[in-house]
Design brief:
Distance between the termini: 65 Å
Structural class: mainly alpha
CATH class of one domain: Mainly Alpha
Strand content: under 5%
Largest sheet: none
CATH architecture of one domain: Orthogonal Bundle
Order of helices and strands: HHHHHHHHHHHHHH
Helix content: over 70%
């Protein structure tokens, strides 16, 4: 009789391989599918809750003032015949609101283009050029981001009045550009710094000037950040009210100021306020939906190297 007990020898696996994970049982698969479905239900519920005010405003803008005064907007689900486009016809026939809408375009587009262009041109040297005071200037920009708009309204208004531009569209554009540049430069510099240094150095070794590197290398790679900044700036300027109330007169007032003026007689002007507010909201929402893919690119830009 042998005194040695038999010892089980484990099965050898080839080098670099691992045994497959155990297959989940039916209970585990059911819990996983239920959890995924529950998360989808929660996301859909949050989305519907967020869209509810937009849907209510859209329906209100297509109902007559009598229907809006008599019943809530949700009654259109049982009476779809209440919907009409007469309010939008009246909006287009109202010269004050159409002029205000055009003023909003004249304010938002130049403010966005100037902030993106100047911000990109200023962010490149802060990211890739060596000069004295570069880091101190970056810290100064970070500090300027924290300055609220309300602090500078009165001093800037006095300065614009001395310059003779107070109450005009260029004054509103200049204020938006001045307060949009610190954040724009800081955002674009943070994105430009993440560009691989080998690309910049190879372009310099090939004899490319700094402007050529900025135009042919940095700007194409920074397109997601530039588009994201443009959407942020456009939405902020388009929806602005406080700057418009201070720096714009009746001839240069944007749509937000015109709607605020109509709010003084809210019950009798609901047929003007509702479609005007929906158009004012739909434009930045459409801009966000058109450029949302750039947000994903800018968020994931530094995740994979």
């Amino acid at each position: 009789m042998s005194i040695f007990a038999p010892v089980g020898v484990p099965e050898l696996q080839p080098a670099g391989t691992e045994p497959p994970p155990p297959r989940p049982g039916p209970a585990a698969r059911a819990v996983r599918h239920l959890g995924r479905g529950g998360a989808q239900v929660v996301v859909v519920a949050i989305g519907l809750w967020w869209l509810m005010p937009i849907l209510g405003l859209a329906v209100t803008s297509m109902r007559s003032p009598a229907d809006n005064s008599a019943t809530g907007w949700w009654t259109v689900l049982s009476k779809p015949a209440q919907l009409t486009l007469r309010n939008y016809e009246g909006l287009l026939a109202d010269g004050r609101l159409t002029h205000a809408l055009w003023n909003t375009v004249l304010i938002s587009v130049p403010s966005t283009v100037l902030v993106v262009a100047i911000g990109a041109a200023a962010a490149y040297p802060l990211a890739w050029l060596e000069f004295r005071g570069r880091y101190a200037l970056t810290l100064l920009l970070v500090g300027l981001i924290a300055v609220p708009v309300q602090v500078a309204i009165i001093p800037v208004a006095r300065m614009f009045r001395l310059l003779g531009v107070y109450g005009s569209i260029p004054a509103v554009v200049a204020f938006h550009v001045a307060f949009g540049l610190p954040f724009a430069i800081f955002l674009l510099r943070s994105f430009f710094v993440a560009i691989p240094p080998d690309l910049i150095e190879s372009a310099r070794m090939d004899g490319g000037s700094e402007f050529a590197i900025f135009r042919r290398v940095v700007l194409p790679l920074g397109a997601p950040a530039l588009a994201s900044l443009a959407v942020f700036q456009f939405v902020w300027v388009w929806n602005d009210l406080i700057v418009a109330l201070v720096f714009a007169d009746s001839d240069s007032a944007p749509i937000t100021s015109a709607i605020q003026e109509q709010m003084r007689s809210f019950p009798s002007n609901i047929d003007v306020i509702a479609p005007g507010a929906f158009v004012s909201m739909a434009v930045p929402l459409l801009a966000f939906l058109l450029f949302q893919r750039f947000f994903k690119q800018s968020v994931l830009a530094g995740s994979v190297r």
